[in-house]
Amino acid sequence: MGDRPYVLLSCAMSVDGYIDDAAPERLRLSSAADFDRVDAVRAGCDAILVGAGTVRADDPKLLIRSQARRERRASRGLPPDLTKVTLTWSGDLDPGARFFTTGESPKLVYAPSGTAAELAGRLDGLGEVVDAGEPLELPVVLADLSARGVRRLMVEGGGAIHTLFLTSGLADELQLVVAPFFVGDPSAPRFVRSGVFPQSPERPMRLAEITRIGDLALLRYLAGERV
């Protein structure tokens, strides 16, 4: 895989491309069966990445839920949980977030040079802050993860992070679950933001799999050349 991990993007969205609505509570786009599928996908990866905005908005634990999957990982000599990774430009992260306070695996925070030192002091050992350049450079992040033994990276959003990986041409696979309803609110967040995407009509992704999960549809696309 060269100097970066295999990168798998995972997202659930409405038919019209929204990953949430504008209400205070999180919109449920998935189902129990799909959550279990995502858990299985997580268990096959080495690290999981979300943006700092997702850490702030959703306060995710990013743990493997199934005890059986955790035990199978341990039997193969792997840690029960994945290495947690986040990207931040502003350094606005709460040390009390569940990203930092749950799980025993490493927590890695990649930040620009101008932010990294102050953030490291504020996190006080809860996670390792890594200087990713000025400005933050995604290839630096991926090369550092590869050097740490991360061969397979799962990226769970949000929209700005998915956009960054896709527009940078650094996504190998996209697992997109489509929920059977519309949101229709222009103020709500979408799967991706505006950008120049190499996955264009002239260079489309390859549809590798379609799976029905109740009324949900899982579309698995191969987005890169390293497949």
Automatic annotation (TrEMBL):
What GO molecular function annotation could you give as one example from this UniProt entry?
5-amino-6-(5-phosphoribosylamino)uracil reductase activity
Entry's SUPFAM superfamilies?
A: Dihydrofolate reductase-like (SSF53597)
**Does the record carry Lipid metabolism as a key word?**
no
What are the residue boundaries of the Bacterial bifunctional deaminase-reductase C-terminal domain, all occurrences included? 5-215
The metabolic or biological pathway listed in the UniProt record of this protein is:
Cofactor biosynthesis; riboflavin biosynthesis
Q: InterPro entries this protein is in?
A: DHFR-like_dom_sf (IPR024072), RibDG_C (IPR002734), Riboflavin_Biosynth_HTPR (IPR050765)
| UniProt-listed Pfam families | RibD_C
Its GO biological process annotations read:
riboflavin biosynthetic process
Q: What are the alphabetically sorted keywords of the record?
A: NADP, Oxidoreductase
Q: What is this protein called?
A: Deaminase
